[in-house]
Amino acid sequence: MAQYTPMIQQYLRVKADYEDAFLFFRMGDFYEMFFDDAQKASQILEITLTSRDGGSRDRIPMCGVPYHSAKGYIERLIAAGHKVAICEQQEDPKQAKGVIKREVVQVITPGTMMEGAGIQEKENHYLASFEQSGNDYAVAAADLTTGECRTAVFHSFDSALHELAAYGVKEIIMNDTWDAEDVKKINDRFGAVISIEEKADEFEFDALLSKLTHALTRKASVRLYHYLHRTQKRNLDHLQPAEQYEIRDYMNIDYYSKRNLELTETIRSKGKKGSLLWLLDETKTSMGGRMLKQWIDRPLLNEKDINRRLGIVETFMASFFEREELREQLKEVYDLERLAGRVAFGNVNARDLVQLKKSLGQIPYLTDLLKKINGDDVQQLADKLDPCTELFGLLEGALIAEPPISVKEGGMITDGFDPQLDEYRDAARNGKQWIAELEKEEREKTGIRSLKIGYNRIFGYYIEVTKANLGLLEEGRYERKQTLANCERFVTPELKEKETLILEANDKMIELEYELFAQLREKVKDFIPRLQNLARTVSEIDVLQCFAAISESRRFVRPVFSTDRTMIIEEGRHPVVEKVMDAQLFVPNHCVMGPKRDMLLITGPNMSGKSTYMRQVALIAILAQIGCYVPADKAILPVFDQIFTRIGAADDLVSGQSTFMVEMLEAKHAIVNATDRSLILFDEIGRGTSTYDGMALAQAMIEYIHTNIQAKTLFSTHYHELTVLDQSLEHVQNVHVTAAEQEGKVVFLHKVKDGAADKSYGIHVAQLAGLPDTVITRADELLHSFESKEHKPEIINEGQLSFFKEEQVPKPALKEDKTIVSKLLSYDIMEMTPLEAMNTLYALQKSAKKPAN
Ligand code: ADP
Ligand code: MG
User: What are the protein's UniProt keywords (predicted)?
Assistant: First the structure.
């Protein structure tokens, strides 16, 4: 250390505290990086790596970015998953003795960004802390831009992970007592940055913990607050008290199912377009957009709460003109939540505050409009709108209409707001007048008509006289300042005096304006909680008007809830497919499941619309429970506690699991957690393995769900053999999606009808796809020969599978059959871990392959 220059020693001391971040070390107009940081950053940011002498034998690697363009570089490092510690000079270099004092003023991390390209208007930007105690886990998630914080307890690692995934966290805060294995799992799953925070003592944050009743949620929240304060190093007055919630207060949709149903993003592009959120998003404010996404992520369970939302939607639908007006007005309301956040953060400018003022100015109009609409719930919303009149008055009085972005150049505060400022302004304005008069005087005195007074930043004010006229100047009064090609510039004592006055006034004016602005900002801080409340109400109004708009334009109906588990959907539609394809062509379908009909076994050729049908039922249930109308002519639905899906999706590449393993994991998740109030969608389960394997698993699952769970289940299958199950399982009903042959070709009718599909259309689909005629003809021949050999599957006695006809099973495994089946049936799948299931399956298959003796 001693070998380094004092400045490099200072650098190394600071860096030691920020090992996990790039240290941006401010030197004049640049942020410099040294050593490893410089080497890495120069690569990531594609900037030149240089070196400097730092007292040591070897030169020190160095790179830097200009202060004024640092923002973009910081964003790029953050986007690449890094952190940046901003170290500023803390004293005036001219006054410093020795090395300038420097200090880290903020650490910017993927989860704590406040602005920039990484922040989406209509999306929250979450970071979360993750806490563990025995078998209990807590997650606390906060959005620093809005100040929200929510926390809940989970009783398994898996469900906590699902919640973290649902938040889409960018950064996870943990202490370092976690098991390395678990940390790796978290890391693999999310690729989110993991940050360590050791501090979790509570006393500093009492007020923020007031609503928390569970020791673990307190711990998770407090760790998060510590981390935010440690990295942001400032008052974070906008942080709201953490809200504790129970996962069982909301319809539970696990991460896989959310993805499968494409609720907020599509599977393929990971974008919003094509998702349910995309279809629904007619919100007019950014905060409404964020609330909509939160609602979709958490459908309600309480029927009263659901009906309250539906009631407001109904009222809005009946008030077309007021609603249209409301939409226009909402457009004028800016992002109050994030504005409040930036006020607390201290990076709000005068323009932001003018936006705040304008938004507040809209509120009385919103209230008036809502008052014109009937309905108690709407009136309550109207009453909750707090226009923050004092704040509006304050901003209106203080700020001019179009201030500049910079807060350090003046021009923000109105005339008449502050007497001292008015005086400086007068001097500055009058100064121009004085100069004009002086110029006139000088012209008259010297008789030089081309004489003029000008200004530049280096020489200040000067009198300019062309070379030809120099002789006319009075000796001794004019002091030469600058000589140019054909003129000379002078100052006089009088001009100097005016100059001092004007420049001082200007400087003081700018300084005072900044001070006044900072005071104003402080005053706005007092309103943060009220602004946040207002933001919530405006968001709610926005989402509900959005539901009304969508429900009207897309012809949705208000759902009704049943208490006896009846589900009747008449002419239901898949809202997104319908929107994408052309509403005219979409074929609506019923879904009728009385209290006793628990499972629909859906058959039909590929591409006939099985998956679409199943998804549409789930989407209708979700829409109903977020309080929106649903795409159908009529809908009676149970309130579902959970939705599970197993829908063939792409491999889970991130976690490196095979399709079949993911399939089994998802199936297990459903079978273990579903209740008779749940909805299960199993789409062609068993497809990822060999036919018999798959069919056996499918049937075992059907039986189990039917007998032990009784959840409403839509089960599509390409195993036609399974369609006999309706004869032995009371609550199972066959339906099929129809297709017709026209002139030897398949036409999909997309219509769901009772009964099983009678024939596979695979060959015709192949024909449709343009496979050579020879292949088609040969396949036809083969099909006929298979069919003639086929035996109708028998119906099971308990404990026996019907479709294992001896002729169809490969000879060697023949005698093993019964033992394999009985083994299979003896397993308690519920008690198995996925790995055990995999191993068992492997062993089963192995014994099946073994020649019998
Ligand atoms: P399956 O699961 O039976 O193979 P999909 O549900 O994937 O079939 O549907 C295949 C295609 O058929 C969809 O992409 C869609 O374009 C169309 N489709 C499905 N259902 C309908 C419907 N009810 N009305 C019109 N077109 C539909
Ligand atoms: Mg399908």
Answer: ATP-binding, DNA damage, DNA repair, DNA-binding, Nucleotide-binding
Give Cα separations from 72 to 75, 79, 266, 349, 791 (angstroms).
Answer: 5, 10, 29, 19, 70
Which of 581, 589, 602, 607 has most ligand 1 atoms within 8 Å of its beta carbon, as the pocket-test mutant? 607
Contact 32/40 with Cβ under 8 angstroms? Answer: no
Q: Are 147 and 239 in contact (CB under 8 A)?
A: yes
**Residue 711 token pair:** 């959840």
Q: Rounded to whole angstroms, how far apart are CA atoms 104 and 82?
A: 17
Architecture of domain 560-758: 3-Layer(aba) Sandwich (3.40)
Domain 281-388+527-553: which topology? MutS, DNA mismatch repair protein; Chain A, domain 3 (1.10.1420)
Pairing type for strands 171-174 and 126-133 reads parallel
Residue 318 in tokens:
């009946």
Please give the pLDDT value at position 374.
86
Q: What is the pLDDT of residue 199?
A: 87
Question: What does residue 421 show for φ and ψ, rounded to 5 degrees?
Answer: -60, -40
The closest residue, in CA terms, to atom 23 on ligand 1 is 587
Q: Are the C-beta atoms of 461 and 499 separated by less than 8 Å?
A: yes
DSSP 416: T
Distance of CA 614 from the midpoint of ligand 2 (Å): 9
What CATH number does domain 126-249 carry, 3.30.565.10, 3.30.420.110, 3.40.50.300, 3.20.20.80? 3.30.420.110
What letter would DSSP give residue 806? G
Q: What is the predicted pLDDT for the residue at 654?
A: 44
Q: With a cut of 50, say whether residue 805 has pLDDT above it.
A: no
Instruction: Tell me if 750 CB under 6 Å of ligand 1.
Output: yes
Neighbours of ion ligand 2 (CB under 5 A): 611
Closest Cα to residue 284, out of 251, 330, 329? 330
* Joined tokens for residue 220: 């998770």
810 pLDDT above the threshold of 50: no
pLDDT in the model for residue 800: 39
Q: Which ligand is nearest to the CA of 580?
A: 1
Which of 393-397, 506-510, 774-778: highest mean pLDDT? 393-397
| Calpha distance 140→803 (Å, rounded) | 50
Look at 1-15, 248-262, 473-487, 682-696 and tell me which has the smallest mean pLDDT.
682-696
Residues of the chain above pLDDT 90, percent: 64
Residues 732-743 have a mean pLDDT of: 86
